[in-house]
UniProtKB/TrEMBL annotation:
Pfam families: TctC (PF03401). Gene3D superfamilies: Bordetella uptake gene, domain 1, Periplasmic binding protein-like II. The lineage of its organism: Bacteria, Pseudomonadati, Pseudomonadota, Betaproteobacteria, Burkholderiales. CDD domains: PBP2_Bug_TTT. Keywords: Receptor, Signal. Residues 1-25 form the signal peptide. Belongs to the UPF0065 (bug) family. InterPro entries: BUG, Bug_dom1, TAT_signal. This is Tripartite-type tricarboxylate transporter receptor subunit TctC.
Length: 329
């Protein structure tokens, strides 16, 4: 008779329990991979989703299908992924809107998903600093000019953004908290109308928005950036200082794109996806595309690091919302 002691029995049991998961990870993918773009076709997220899908077809020898599920500022598509099975076949290109600002602004019942618990966060693709932008003919040549004028007059800074509860809105409130200025927000239905109003000699003092939406005007010289909310200067605009350089190290705000999936994806598959997305991000043509959209290529974080990054972003914006008293219906 073969005798098995308790330790051997438990070890065998654990091995048998792990075997199906190991086998599943080894055979993945065995069917088409669905990549959700939570915005309409034609935008940056849609372009990245399709490009990554094409790369996956080569890297994993599998079919990848991009599905555009737009609506509610990206929440419709994000909710769809949150409710999907964690089998590695439902993935998405996400952003600082869906997994940074929105969770800080909206109640969970309105948001419709748990930004951490219902997702597997895989990799950070790119990032871009939020910028404080004024007209080229603005009397404020530097950030110090603006701060000095408003502290002397006591007037609020009238700033525009692409919408209530967006990263531009939240960043403007963050700026006010650190600069010691009153900020009065003027929301627009997107970045384009905000810029149009600024250039139309409205009463706006500035725009707080992601740099990538306004690089055309920056390059044309019709606007000036007073400061960028990044840790270091943007490589494509080396002459533009950061808030930190001008005495405000706490003003760090970036818009970003990342790659995530539904919760519960096996670690072995997550590791393969992380490696694939990071490798794709470092390709020369991809890096060129990202830089041309005024973003910085990332593609260096592990899945664990990216998850911690998402958690820190939600915590940061939640604190800003709480201090500023922002409420979104």
């Amino acid at each position: 008779m073969i005798k098995t002691n308790r330790r051997q029995f438990l070890a065998t049991g654990v091995g048998l329990a792990a075997a199906p998961m190991f086998t599943y990870a080894q055979t993945w993918p065995s069917k088409p991979i669905r990549i959700v773009a939570a915005y309409a076709p034609g935008g940056s997220i849609d372009a990245m989703a399709r490009w990554i899908g094409k790369y996956f077809e080569t890297a994993f020898n599998a079919t990848a299908v991009v599905e555009n599920l737009s609506g509610a500022g990206g929440r419709i598509g994000t909710q769809n992924v949150a409710r999907s099975a964690g089998d590695g076949y439902t993935l998405m290109v996400t952003s600082s809107a869906a997994h940074g600002g929105a969770p800080a602004v909206y109640p969970r019942e309105t948001l419709g998903y748990d930004p951490i618990g219902q997702f597997t966060h895989i990799a950070l693709i790119s990032s871009a600093p939020i910028a404080l932008i004024v007209r080229a003919d603005s009397p404020y040549k530097t950030l110090a000019d603006l701060v000095k004028d408003r502290k002397q007059s006591g007037k609020a800074v009238l700033y525009g953004s692409g919408g209530i509860g967006g990263l531009g809105h939240l960043s403007g409130e963050m700026m006010g908290q650190h600069l010691g200025l009153r900020m009065e927000h003027v929301p627009y239905r997107g970045s384009v109308p905000a810029m149009q109003d600024l250039l139309g000699n409205s009463n706006l003092d500035a725009i707080s928005d992601n740099l990538s939406s306004h690089m055309g005007q920056v390059r044309a010289g019709t606007v000036r950036i007073l400061a960028m909310a990044s840790e270091k200067r943007f490589s494509e605009l080396p002459d533009v200082p950061t808030f930190a350089e001008q005495g405000y190290p706490g003003v760090i705000a970036t818009s970003w794109y990342g790659f995530s999936g539904s919760a519960g994806i096996p670690p072995e598959i997550v590791a393969r996806l992380n490696q694939a997305v990071n490798t794709w991000t470092q390709q020369e043509d991809v890096r060129k595309f990202i830089l041309e959209t005024a973003m910085t290529p990332e593609g260096r974080m592990s899945s664990e690091e990216y998850t911690k990054f998402v958690e820190s972003e939600i915590a940061k914006w939640t604190a800003v919302v709480k201090e500023s008293g922002i409420e979104v219906e």
